Amino acid sequence: LNLTFSVGETRVARHIAFATFKEAPRDMRRLSLDERKAVALDYMASHGELRAGRAIAALAAGRSVDDAFYEVIGNTLAAIDERRDCSDFVLVPLLWVAACYRDGVPTDLMTAIDRSILNYRYWVDEPGNDVMWFWSENHVLCFHVSQYLAGRLYPDRRFECSGRWGHEQTALAENRLMRWFDSVEVHGLAEWNSAAYYPIDFIGLLALEHLAEGEIRDLARNLLDRLFLMIGLHTLAGVPAGTMGRAYDKELRAGPLTELAPFATVAFGQGWLNDGVAALPMFAAASYSPPAEARDVVDPPVGKAVTAHYVQGHDEAARLVLYKTAAVQLSSTMDGKPGGRGHQQHILDIRFAANPLAKAWVNHPGEDDPWGHQRPSYWAGNGSMPRAAQYGNAALLLYDLGADARLPFTHAYVERSAFDEVILEDNWIIMKSGRGFAALTATRPIVPVETGPGAGIEFRAEGTNVAWYGLVGDGTDADSLQRFRLQLLKTQLELSADGRRAVLQQSDGPLLSLDWTEGLSVDGQPYVFPNRSIDPLIRWADAVSF
C-alpha cells in the first residue's frame, strides 16, 4: 500500500506491506502424494510467481512455452547476469531446467541460459564486485549447489569468471558441500524451523537429491528427511509454525502465505497453495517422498499430545521444545543468549488449529516502527533476548532490557479478530479458538493498545524487568473455558526484587523457577534438557484438558 500525503510543496510518502488470502484451504489427504504433486504443479504453472520455479512447473506439467515462460526466463537471466542479491536462489532452478528440460526450451532461450550459467560468479574466490550476499546458511548452500551442478552440466566448458573448467568447478564445489553437510550433521541448522528459509534450503537440497550422485545425494536426502520431520512436528492444521531461527513479520502473521505452507500441503495433504515457487515446483516435479515418521506426527488424535525436544544451531544455540495437540501448539527455544540482541530468532509461539491467523507470541520490539524492516523488527526477533524455558504445556520468559532500553516495554501479539474469544481479566490474556485455549500473563500490568497499528493485536507490559508466562490446553465441553479461567486464578507468577528470577506457583503442577543465570528449576531441582541431539526426541502423552 503506497500512501502519499501532500501539503503545498511538502510530500511524505509511506509504503505499508500487507498480504491477502486468495485461496481457500484444501483437503487433499485422500489423494496420493503423486496426485497432490500434480495438483500443485498445475496450480503453480498457472498462478505461480514469475520466477524460475514457475518454468519448472510449466515444463513438468506439460505446458507449452508462452509469453509468461519467456518473462520468467528473462527475469531470471537478468537477476543472474546483474549478479543481484539472491540470484543464487534462481540459478539453481534454472540449472534444473537446463539439466531436465533442455529439449523443451526454445533454442534462443537455451543459448541465453547457457551463456548466463557459464558467466556467473560462483563464490568469493572468483573476481567480481557486486551486491550478492554469500554468508548465511541458505546462501552458502545455494552457491555451492549451483557451482556443483553447473560444473556437472558443462564439464568440458570453461567458466568465464573463474577461468576454471566445469569439472574443476564440480570438484571444488563437492569439497565445499561436504564441509557444509559436515557442519549441519554436527550442529543442525542455525535457521531452524524457518518458514522463510526452509524453502530456500529446499532449493539446494531437492536439486542435489534429484541431480547429484553418490554421497552428496545421500546426504541431501537424509537432510530432507530431517527437515520434513521437523516440519511435520511443527505443522498444525496445514500451517507450519513455531519457534524459528529466522523469522519476518510476514511469516509470523500470515503462515498460510509462506512457501513452507504449500510444502506441508503437498507433503501431508491439508493446507494452502499460494504463488510461492522458489522450491515447491522442484518438490512436485521430483520423485522424493517425505518419510512416514514425518506424516505420523502431523495430526495428533483428539485427546493426545505429541512432544519433542532437540537442539539446533552452533553449539546448541537453540534447545527446541514442542507441545502439540489437535487443537493448539506451544513451541519455544530454551535458554539462548539472554540479554543479547535477537536478530530474527522467534522464541515463543502459540498456534491454534481452528483459524490460520489465531496465534500469539511475546517479544521485545527491536525498532520503533511497527511497519519497519529492521532485524530485529517491531514484531520479529527481540531487541533484547529473554531467558526462556518450556515445561510441557507451559512456558516462561524472563526479560532484563537494561536501564537504557530505547523501548522499555515487552508486548504480546494476539490478533483478537482471529479468535472466538479474547478476554483480558486479572492481568491474564485468555484466548479461545475452537477447542484450543491459551493464556498469557506478566509480572507487569498488561494493557491493550487501542489506537494506531497495534490496535486489536497488541498488549503491552511496560517496564525493563518483567517475566511472562504462557499456558495452553484443550477444551472438552461447553464449561471448559470457565474451568480454564478458574485454573488461572489459582496460578501465581512472581518476579524477584532484582528481576533475576521468575517463580510460577500452580495449583496442580510443579513449582517452576526461571533464573537469569541458572535457567529452569522444577520443584527446586535444576532441569536437565532431555535430549542433546539434533534428531528430535518424540513422545506421546495425554493432552492437558480442562
What features would you describe in this structure?
50% of the residues are buried. The protein has helices at 33-47, 52-60, 67-81, 87-100, 107-119, 137-153, 166-187, 198-211, 214-234, 249-253, 260-268, 280-285, 292-296, 480-489, and strands spanning 2-7, 10-15, 26-27, 235-236, 239-240, 270-271, 304-312, 318-324, 328-334, 348-352, 359-363, 387-391, 394-400, 409-414, 421-425, 428-433, 436-442, 446-448, 458-462, 465-474, 492-495, 501-505, 512-515, 519-522, 525-526, 537-542. β12 (387-391) and β13 (394-400) form a beta hairpin. It is an alpha+beta fold. It has 14 helices and 26 strands. The two termini are 43 Å apart. α2 packs parallel to α4, α6 runs parallel beside α8 and α7 crosses α9. The protein is globular and about 75 Å long. The mean pLDDT is 96. The longest helix is centred in the N-terminal third of the chain and has 22 residues, at 166-187. Helices cover 32% and strands 24% of the residues. The strands form six sheets. The protein has a nine-stranded antiparallel beta sheet, with no helix packed on it.
